[in-house]
Amino acid sequence: VVVVVVVLLSTYHFVSNMDLPQEKEWVPRSHIPGAPGTLTRAAAQKAKIFTQYMEEEQEEIKLQKGRGEVNASYVEVAFIKCKDSRDGRRVTSIFNDLVSEGAAGEAIHTLGTAVEGSGVAPSSHVLVSIGSCQAYEDSIHLRSEQVSADLDMFMKSYNAVIFTPAATDQMKDMVANLNKSKTYNIDIVEAKDYRLPEGFRGVKRYAERMADKLLLQVQELSFDSEEDMTSFNEGMATLYSAEHRLTDKPAYRAFRSPGSMQELTVPVAYTLKRSEKELLMFIVDSVDTFQQDLEFAKGNEAVSQGNDKVSAANLYFLGAGAQNEVVAEYVKTQQAKKRFANVPKTEF
Tens digits of per-residue pLDDT, 51-99? Predict the structure, then answer.
């Protein structure tokens, strides 16, 4: 019996390695060497990743050439002020109704009330929207004449920045038309650096995967001098090149990074120089990474010194992760430094 068992095991080993057929996998046609041809599992996976990378490159080339059939993504950060709390409630109600009708970015669309105001004190709100340029155009189209008039009436100001690699002509025309009103002040900032790694779908994927840890950081920063701003930027460069901020498996990608290269862990980390002494920062982040930032800053002189160069700040934290105790403690710390730090009440 012992002899028979040994023979069977030996035979099984021989069959599993030599006689079993190779499992066929789908691979892009361009990667099939010969016909019919198959690739190993590892080669097939690499082929899929590099196909994804080539498709992204082609999309970027089309954007740079201004081809209209490519639907670019946008990231909007808006600061809204109303005369008092009553007008603030009316504005949030109008935007809420528009969202229910589909006027929203496909990836992220949220409005938070930072200051409720009162019968005599103004209210302030922060809007973050990420999606396709087509979605932005649709959201403006959905506003009836009455809705547009009401927003003009109840909003004291609507100051916004729209980041995009390439705005459509229609989007530019819509923004220009809105800016004719004294209420609106919207800047479209176009640059290839604002291309989202996997478009708005990558941001949506990231938001879904982060779930209750999703943290949207909106920071308006002021400095006493341009040198102080430079010091801060150098600190941020050090922070975002830290090990915990880089990965070859970012949550916003469906697969690994192309070529397994190191990328930022977040899909959006924008900095805009608004003047010689002012910066606007917007980051789609997670609470866990934010907490690692705080720990890293404690042991890094460049980061801590750069943060100390900020003379004034308006800091807003939105998303489900903003309710985390780590954020709450950080807000208290910043308020103790006489900076405005706030977790806005989520309206939608």
Answer: 776 776 666 665 555 444 346 899 999 999 999 999 999 999 999 999 9
User: What six digits make up the tokens of 169?
Assistant: 């002509």
Residue 309, pLDDT score: 95
Region for 105 from its dihedrals, namely left if φ exceeds 0, alpha if ψ lies in -120 to 50, beta otherwise: beta
Render 139-204 in DSSP notation, one character per residue. Answer: HHHT--HHHHHHHHHHEEEEEEEEEESS--HHHHHHHHHHTTSTTEEEEEEE-GGG--BTHHHHHH
CB atoms within 10 A of CB 191: 12
Give the DSSP letter string of 203-267: HHHHHHHHGGGEEEEEEEEEESSHHHHHHHHHHHHHHTTSGGGEESS-TTSSSSPGGG--EESSS
Supply the mean pLDDT for the chain.
Answer: 86
Cβ-count burial 65-75 (b if 16+ within 10 Å, e if not): eeeeebbbbbb
Question: Rounded distance, CA 274 to CA 24, Å?
Answer: 55
Contact indicator for 81, 124 with CB cutoff of 8 Å: yes
Residue type, 333: T
Helices (H) and strands (E) in the chain, counts: 11, 13
Helix, strand, or coil (residue 72): coil
